[in-house]
Amino acid sequence: MCYYLTYIVRRGGNALSTWQKTFQRWQQAETIPASLKKSLREMEHDTEQIKDAFYNYITFGTGGMRGILGPGINRMNVFTVRRAVEGLARFISEHRVNYKDRGVVIGYDSRHQSREFALEAAKVLGVHGIRSYVFKTLCPTPLLSFAVRYFGATAGIMITASHNPPNYNGFKVYNEQGSQITSEEAEAIIANINGVTNELAVRVLPEEQLERGQLLQWVNGEAHAAYLEQLKTITKLDADTVSLEKDLAIVFTPLHGTALDLVDRGLRQLNFTNVHYVKEQTVADPNFSTVASPNPEEKQAFTEAIALGNKVGADILLATDPDADRLGVAVKDGRGEYTVLTGNELGCLLLDYILRHTDPLLFPSARMIKTVVTTELGRKIAASYGVETLDTLTGFKYIGEKINEFDATGETFIFGFEESFGYLINSFARDKDGVQATVMAVELAYYWQQKGKTLLQALDELYARHGYFKEGLDDLVLEGVTGQKKIQAIMETFRHDLRDAFGSIKTVAVEDYLAQRKVFVQEDERKESLSLPRENALKYVLEENCWVCLRPSGTEPKLKWYYGAYGKTREEVEARYDMMQETLREIVPAALKRVVS
Q1: For residues 449-475, average pLDDT
Q2: Helices within 391-514 (DSSP H only)
Q3: What is the mean pLDDT of residues 249-262?
Q4: Which of these is catalytic: 162, 179, 420, 427?
Q5: What is the pLDDT of residue 1?
Q6: How many CB atoms lie within 10 A of CB 286?
Q7: Coil, strand or helix at 367
């Protein structure tokens, strides 16, 4: 026993708690790598740090797990990855046919230890006789989704933490359809993971043994080439236009991530050759050295792209996040300054472009899919073409699930998007695809350029036709075990003490996705059932096409609240938006004070 834990026992006179015992078990284990041993020694006298790292296993949610790198069962390291893969392997062996030969596809991004975690996953799968297809180089998340279907695999694993800070990494699981695992699949996988009680004892096979037994097969260019062939099919340009060399001036940055190769080749397939890359950010840097955050939702991520755009006179700037499943776009406004489009704005522009170039005979069976926190402008646009809109819970995994259902229903997927910069144009991938979105956004900008208009002018036309919509997002960071309890308490406050108004805008109904019911506030609280899956989220449906939604983040220690305003004029929507924003910034902290007191 280390001196520090001995000291705790002698001073307190009590037996060690569970987290202290786990910490001690890690200290004494001979299999702990030297780097983790060093970190264990450094945290030895920090009780709170030890408790946070060892009090509980890192959460495996509905899609996987994501967390801070370091020692401990509540951290991302080789042992928590092995434990997760062991549970996944047990699930596959119970629920999939011919699973050993079909195997699992494994991809990884540019983050610290991503390649190491990918190989650890293969080593665990090998113990079960399950073949792994591991990408030889960095792999965008949408390519992993595609590759699962391409190889006919039983599952996919993507090692990524998306746009989280550099000290994070993550582990996402995909099912045999190439989409993120369903809630039912997640429950079964979690049950198997929970059956692994000693993460330090999970068996692995050496890499050399895997290769000799053909249990490890490296993926080189084959999947990339097949993906690019599919990427050609999404264009709405005719063959003559595709053959033209286009003068649209483009700046692209992968933000130190994985998208460069596929985006470059995808644009060249359509003869977009006037492309300028932010050189420093084409380097796969796990520290994301040139940005405060590699998140294309934030304007600071475009700082270098804007500088290059001004230098070369770019018409459009594009940035993908490190695993290339999200896309941000910036274009010049009336003052000649670059402005970053919101995810809702770009999604609506893409939707309108796709629908105006789609055969109307497809519209009766066509479906546009969005999440419950995505702009209602999308529904208006789709309806104007006679296309039905389907709503899902927050998270692209639910959009993927809905697309999978179309194989049986005969419905046609036309477009899917969410407000957080996730888009899918064609279902050869079954998760949001920043590569598809990049190529289509460039094509969109070129289309409007040929008509003498910017994307902002095209957006103004949509508002003039359908009304003005504006959406916002705020959050409250509450870290640690106590933070999670506070978030849950705030949710319960809004769930049980229904608000009848937000500012001057009255509540019509409350959709409780955890209880799967809709309560009509102004109709003596009449109730209806909801068919969406269970999730800890609430949506207040308000008058005048306005709404508010609250939900805990699935990947960060945050309570998020989304809100959307509508107006017949720009002035009207701005006034309602400001009022809702101000109201929410008052009542959510007030709810926190009540639960704390």
Answers
A1: 97
A2: 396-409, 434-450, 455-466, 480-496
A3: 98
A4: 162
A5: 36
A6: 17
A7: strand
pLDDT beyond 70 at 189: yes
Question: How many beta carbons lie within 10 A of that of residue 472, not counting itself?
Answer: 17
Q: What is the DSSP letter of 427?
A: T
d(CA 369, CA 374): 10
pLDDT in tens, 84-118: 999 999 999 999 999 999 999 999 999 999 999 99
Per-residue CA distances from 595 to 88, 356, 417, 478, 482 (Å): 38, 50, 35, 13, 12
For residue 310, the model assigns a pLDDT of 98
Q: Answer yes or no: 162 catalytic.
A: yes
Q: Which two tokens stand for residue 397?
A: 């995994």
Give residue-wise pLDDT tens across range 521-557. 988 889 999 999 999 999 999 999 999 999 998 777 8
**Could you tell me if 406 and 517 lie in one domain?**
no
Residue with tokens 């055969």: 359
Domain total in the chain:
3
Residue 8 is predicted with a pLDDT of: 40
Inform me whether the pLDDT recorded for 11 exceeds 70. no
Give bridge partners of residue 339 from the DSSP assignment. Answer: 331
Mean pLDDT, to the nearest integer, of 253-261? 98
Among 449, 466, 483, give the residue marking a domain's end: 466
In a domain, 200, yes or no: yes
What count of residues does the chain have? 597
Q: Is residue 106 situated within a structural domain? A: yes
Measured in degrees and rounded to the nearest 5, phi and psi for residue 69 equal: -75, 140
Q: For residue 453, what are its two tokens? A: 């208009």
Looking at residue 595, what is its pLDDT? 84
**What does the block give as tokens for 500?**
């009848």
Structural domain that includes position 576: 468-596
Q: Tens of pLDDT along 270-283? A: 999 999 999 999 99
C-alpha closest to that of 332 among 469, 448, 236? 448
Same domain? For 83 and 189 the reply is yes
Structure confidence at residue 63 as a pLDDT band (50, 70, 90): confident
pLDDT of residue 2: 47
| Of 303, 314, 311, nearest in space to 275 by CA | 314
Q: What is the rounded distance in angstroms from the CA atom of residue 366 to the CA atom of residue 389?
A: 9
The torsion of the CA quartet 55, 535, 66, 279, rounded to 10 degrees, works out to: -150
Distance CA 259, CA 238 (A): 26
CA separation (Å) from 170 to 108, 277, 391, 493, 540? 10, 28, 27, 31, 32
Question: In this structure, are 264 and 413 located in the same domain?
Answer: yes
Q: Is 18 a member of any domain?
A: no
* % of the chain residues with pLDDT over 70: 97
Of 183, 164, 196, 158, nearest to 73 by C-alpha is: 196
Q: CB atoms < 10 A from the CB of 405, how many?
A: 12
State the alpha helices, DSSP H only, in 222-286.
222-232, 239-243, 260-269
Nearest to 176 by CA among 143, 151, 213, 158: 151
**DSSP secondary structure string for all residues of 108-147:** E-SSTTHHHHHHHHHHHHHHTT--EEEESS---HHHHHHH
Give the three-state DSSP class for 250.
strand
